[in-house]
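Structural prep section.
Before we set up the soaks we want a predicted structure of the protein with magnesium ion in place, mainly to decide which crystallisation condition to try first. Input record follows.
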Amino acid sequence: MPFSVKGTLLLKEDHRSLEKAAQIIKSGGLVAFPTETVYGLGAAANNAAAVARIYRAKGRPPDNPLIVHLSDCDQLKSVARNIPDKAFDLASCFWPGPLSIVLTRNEKIPALVSAGLPSVAVRMPDHQSALELIHLSGVPIAAPSANLSGRPSPTNYRHVLEDLTGRIEAVIKSTPCKVGVESTVLDLTREQPVILRPGGVSKEQLEKILGENILIAELEKQNGTPLSPGMKYRHYSPEARLILITGLASMRFTVIKILAAYYLKLGFKVGYLNTSLQGSLKCNASPEQLASTLYDSMRRMDQQGIDIILAEEISPAGLGLAVMNRLKKAATRILHVG
Ligand code: AMP
Ligand code: MG
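Run finished without errors. Recording the tokens verbatim:
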């Protein structure tokens, strides 16, 4: 008998447990499952009532669309239509992997999955249990991150339990997510491909395959409206106030020390997220290491009752662009020095 807390089952990754999870999906339930990026909160993508439950369980704004997860490229045609060759080129290079492609939605997929948009985001996760769950469910799985809306995304099953115990039918217990930040969302429905959200696959990698320049939506707004609905929310945020220090590298170091001393004197508890200061856990960490520990660090600092988190800009190359995007979204203040 699997362990259960307040009606939420904690399932293992063996075949029998994944069959149980698939049964839950087939009968309209919600299952949180591991992927290589972050944990997803899944429901059958063709079941509008089940998809509606995702929004309710997360407290997700109704205008923020979900991503449809596949276990097989053949499922793509049941989710999207008028699929350009570029999508197949990218899928064959990066799937399974952290790339979500925005295409024209097939009417078989309820509009609610895409928050009413005519498009749909699709990806194939690079995680054995996720692929098996989708396969056993016999249907693509719609899944946003398995956190309460606005909280840092979950990168291990404990994060999911913190946020969603009693709100969903099951969680699959796995090892922590490898990448640690969400997938890259690339929109192929426009004249020129646009990255709506930087993530596990970099702009440089995508441009190499497509052989053309790709825009970044942070910089591209249409009439002041963001191109991706998710972009307008303050996301990925810890409860603590996060101050991001950007600008001249040699000055950032000094400013962080001054700010820390100032807030400590006022009686606040101060935490460092990714600074090069002595005593930091992540001194000289690579963007990959920072990405995989980012959300867990935010959640731990909240648990320790930290009031102010000081974080430092990192280079936006490769996965650094995704880390910087999440830090900017989480920040209550961005302090530019130099
Ligand atoms: P989450 O998996 O919780 O990070 O949420 C999915 C993200 O993908 C959100 O930021 C959405 O804005 C984005 N997204 C999903 N579908 C679409 C779409 N059809 N068009 C634009 N952005 C999308
Ligand atoms: Mg999310």
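Observations: The first strand starts at residue 3 and ends at 5.
Flagged for discussion at group meeting.
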